[in-house]
Design a protein that fits this description.
Helix 1 packs parallel to helix 2, helix 1 packs across helix 13 and helix 3 packs parallel to helix 4. By secondary structure, this protein is α/β, with parallel strands linked by helices. It has a seven-stranded parallel sheet, sandwiched between helices. Strands 10-9-8-11-12-13 form a six-stranded parallel sheet, sandwiched between helices. Helix 2 links the parallel strand 2 and strand 3. It folds into two domains: 167 residues, Glycogen Phosphorylase B (Rossmann fold); 165 residues, Glycogen Phosphorylase B (Rossmann fold, 3-Layer(aba) Sandwich), CATH 3.40.50.2000. 34% of the residues lie in helices and 16% in strands. The protein contains 14 helices and 13 strands.
């Protein structure tokens, strides 16, 4: 089969990297098209994924719109030449439009609700099959399928990722030493209009508090100056998850990084304008499990007090490890799930498949409810039944097993 995959963000590279490798190992032709943003190109090169960058990184809000138009036009031209069977994307607006125009079946993976990411309104109406985590708080009538996982478990599921301390030692970091990782956002995405993160004074206060007990590594997507006592990230982007896994604390404004850290069992505090009553379903669920503590930026002082206490709590690491195991017992290898939805010979995984589920290349306990489950903890919604997708004429049908 011919399969197009679109990349708009660094998280998309991680999400699809194993999918690309397994599809190609099975003899399928995979065409990866990307729009530059941050370290997208660097990650694709690091993972040796053949790809084509269709557009550079936009500048300003006007540039974002023009870049999107350019990206869609160039993607359409490439797709017409390929005539793909499927187009796979994560939150990719262009992919669904192009899929409709060239007759490819679009499979779209979304994990951020429309109340936060308005771009969904331009994506979902053109989608053939929409996939969301069970924690997703919105329901769509047409071809909406839910699965027990998160995007990040396509690459951080224990069957896919094993933290390697030597990857840190190579870059001068002793994984046994105390250190914290801070991730600040750029706030220039289409869903960030009118939003801002931790104040400049708050950033300095956090670094000063944490630096008294260890090293503090800071990644700032906005390329601002580092606070005094902070150090830049010591590892390349491809090794970032190893750094998160051995950290004593992760603090961030960025949703993906804080969710990744929580899933790796690292004590995590998120300070975001999106936290609160309109919270994303995935963070509601992680709060219930006690894996990420989320605070609205209006409560920055409270958040700083809590992250400081948590960093000095000797039981935090073991508590998070136990909670992680409880969560993972209910989740699946999302890479295998993606493959199972387009390939009939790949079984749809279940949580019980951990460490034993076949991959494409190989085959051709309950939530914690303790008092420290997070200041914004809410009950997460239960799973919804899947809906069937009818076979599309002259295209491979979606495998529902």
């Amino acid at each position: 089969m011919d399969i197009v995959i679109t990349i708009q963000h660094a998280a998309n590279v991680h999400f699809f990297k194993h999918v690309v490798g397994e599809l190609e190992s099975a003899g399928h032709d995979v065409f990866v098209f990307a729009r530059e943003k941050g370290v997208v190109g660097e990650l694709l090169d690091a993972y040796e994924i053949d790809h084509e960058l269709l557009c550079g990184e936009p500048r300003g809000w006007l540039g974002l719109g023009l870049t999107q138009l350019c990206y869609e036009a160039r993607l359409l031209r490439r797709a017409r030449a390929i005539d793909p069977d499927y187009i796979l994307t994560s939150h990719g607006i262009a992919a669904t439009h192009v899929g409709t125009l060239v007759g490819a079946e679009s499979h779209v993976y979304i994990d951020t609700e429309t109340t936060i990411n308005g771009g969904n309104r331009l994506t979902i109406p053109f989608t053939d099959v929409l996939y969301t985590p069970e924690s997703f708080r919105e329901t769509y009538d047409a071809e909406h399928v839910r699965y027990p996982g998160y995007h990040e478990l396509a690459y951080l599921h224990p069957d896919r990722f094993d933290p390697d301390p030597d990857r840190l030692r190579t870059h001068g970091v002793d994984p046994d030493d105390r250190y914290a990782v801070l991730r600040f956002g750029a706030w220039n995405g289409n869903h960030d209009i009118g939003k801002s993160g931790i104040s400049a004074a708050g950033r300095h206060e956090i670094v000063d508090e944490l630096a008294t007990d260890g090293r503090v590594f800071v990644a700032d997507e906005g390329d601002g100056p580092l606070p005094t006592s902070a150090e830049p990230l010591p590892v390349p982007p491809a090794d970032f998850h190893h750094l998160l896994a051995f950290a004593d604390l992760v603090v961030g404004e960025v949703a993906t990084t804080t969710l990744e850290a929580g899933l790796l069992g690292t004590p995590t505090v998120r300070i975001s304008p999106f936290a609160g009553t309109s919270e994303m379903g995935k963070f509601r669920e992680l709060a219930e499990y006690g894996l990420v503590r989320s605070f609205h930026t209006d409560h920055e002082t409270t958040a700083i007090r809590e992250l400081t206490r948590l960093y000095r709590d000797p039981s935090a690491a073991s508590n998070w490890a136990d909670r992680r195991e409880a969560l993972l017992a209910t989740k699946i290898d999302v890479t295998q799930y993606i493959l199972s939805q387009i390939l009939a010979d790949v079984p749809e995984p279940t949580p019980e498949d951990r460490d034993s589920g076949p991959t494409l290349a190989a085959s051709g306990s309950g939530p914690s409810s303790g008092s420290d489950a997070g200041s914004e903890a809410l009950n997460h919604p239960g799973p919804c039944p899947e809906t069937e997708s009818p076979p599309r004429p002259d295209r491979p049908s979606v495998n529902r097993n």
